[in-house]
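go over this chain:
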Amino acid sequence: MKKEFSKKFLTGIIIGTFLFSSSVYALDSTQSKKQRKSFISRLNIFNKQKVNKDKKTKIEEIKLPPVQGRPKIPFSEITVMTIDDCVKYALEHNPQLKVSEERIKAAKSSIGQARANYAPRFSVGYNLYHRNNKATQVVRSYDNSMGFNVGVSDTIWDFGKTTAKINMAKYDTKAAEFDYNYELLEIIYLVRTNYYRVLSALADLDIFEQNVRIQTLNFERTKAMFDEGLKSKIDVVNAEVNLADAKIQLVEGQNYLLNSIIALQDSMFYQEDKPFVVTNTENFGFLKADYKKKMDSANNSKPPAPVMKKNEDGLVLLSSGIEHNDIIQDYQLNPLKFTKQQAVDKALELRPDLQSDMMLVKVQEESLKAIKRQYAPSINANLTWNYNRDEHSYSSPLQVGAGIDLGSVNPYGIHYQIKEGESYLNIAKHNVNIAKSSIYWEVQDNYINMRHMEREIPLMNTKVKATLENFELADGRYSVGLNNYVELQDALRNYNQAQLNFVESVLKYNIARETLLKSMGFGLDKDGKLTTEL
C-alpha cells in the first residue's frame, strides 16, 4: 500500500510541475502576442524612424578616435559635409536620443502592464496530508491523502478602472514621444548654430589673411620709400609693428577656427577618423572656391605670399586684387517669408513641449477617473479543477464560477485621493497655460530679433563698401606722400573691422533665425532637411 501511495505521490509531483510550466509558457505567449509594432510616432515634420523591437537591444560603447596632431591631409581625402549632413549624423549618433527612445519603450510597456489586468491568471497547487491518531493505547490509526488543483481566473469588467489606467499609460507614452521630439529640436539647433560658427570663423580667417598680405605690402612699400628718403624711420617701425599684430591676429583666428570645428564635432558626436570640411549655406555664402584650403590653413600659420607690384619709380604698390577681395562680394540674403502671427500660430500648433504638457493633462484626467472608480466592483470568472485522493477514495471535481468582487473600499481615504487628483489636474492645466504664454512671447521676441538682423545686414554691407573706398583713397594718398602712415592704418583698421562686423551680423542673423525656428517647433521634413514651409 505504501509503495502504491509513493508512486502516486511521485506522479502527482511530475504532473504538477508540467502543468505549472505550461501555465507560465501560456502567459508568456499571451504577452508576446500583444506586442505592438514598434514605431515611434513623430510630428509630421519629423523623420519617422523605425525601431526594431524583435531584436534584442544592443548597447555599444562609443569608441572615440585617437587624438592626433595636425597632419597634412590631401584635399582628395577630405569629406565635404553640408549643414543637413551634419544634422543627420548627429541624429544617428547622439546617445541622448537613444536614452529618450528607451524611455518611450518603457512608457509603452506600461500600457501592456495596465492591460494585463484583463489577462487570465493561472494558479497551480499541490498538497499532502498525513494524520496519525495516538489518542489511546487501544486504538491507533493513521491515514494519508494528497491533493492537486489547477485554476484560471479572469476579470470580465471592472467598470472602467482598468480602462482609465490603460488610457493613462497611452497618454504618458505620447508625452514621452513629444519629449523625444523636443530633444530632436535641441540637437538640430545646437549642430546648426555650431556649423554657422565654423563658417564665421572661416570668414574671419579670410579677413585676417588678407590683412597680413596688406600689412606685408605696406611694410615693404614703406621700407622702400624710407630708402628713397620719402618716409621717416618711425613709419617703417609702425609698419613692422602692425604686420606683427596682423600675424598674431591670424594665429588667434586659426585657433578659434579649430575650437569651432571641435565644438561642431562634439555636438555631432563625431567618431570618424576621416576629417570633413563645411560648405556654404543659404544665408552664409562667404566661402570661395578654395574653402578646403581655408580649412587646412588652420594647420598652417603662413598665409599665401603677397603679390608685389611696383610703380614706375620702383615703389611697392598694393595689389588691387587684395583690397577688392572683400567679404561682401557676391553675398545674398534670403529672408524667411512669414508674419509674426503665422510664427506664433505655428508654434502653438507644433511645439513638442507644449503638446507634452497637454498629454500630461489627459494623464491626470484619467488618473482622477481611476481614483473615483475605486467604488465600483469587479466582475470575475474562474475555472478550477481539483484532484484529491486518500487511502480509500478519490475525487476529481471541476468548478466553474463567476462573482462580483467589491474589494476593500475606504471612502475616507478615497475622498482625499480625489482631492489630491483634482489638484494635480489643475496644476497640469495651469502648466499648459504657462507654456502657451511663454511660447507666445518667446516667438515674438525671436521674430523681432531676426527681422532686426535682416535690416542691419544691408546697412553693414554699405558700411563695408564705404570703408573700402576710404581705404583705397587713403592708400593712394599715402603712395604719393599726401598723408601719413597713421591715417592709412586708421582707414585699413576701419575697413577690416567693418568686414568683421559684417560677418558677425550674418552669424547673429543665422543664429536668430535658428532660434526662431526652434521656438516655432520646426524640425526635419521627410527628406531629413529643415523645413520652413508654413
Summary: The mean pLDDT is 78. The longest helix spans residues 411-479.
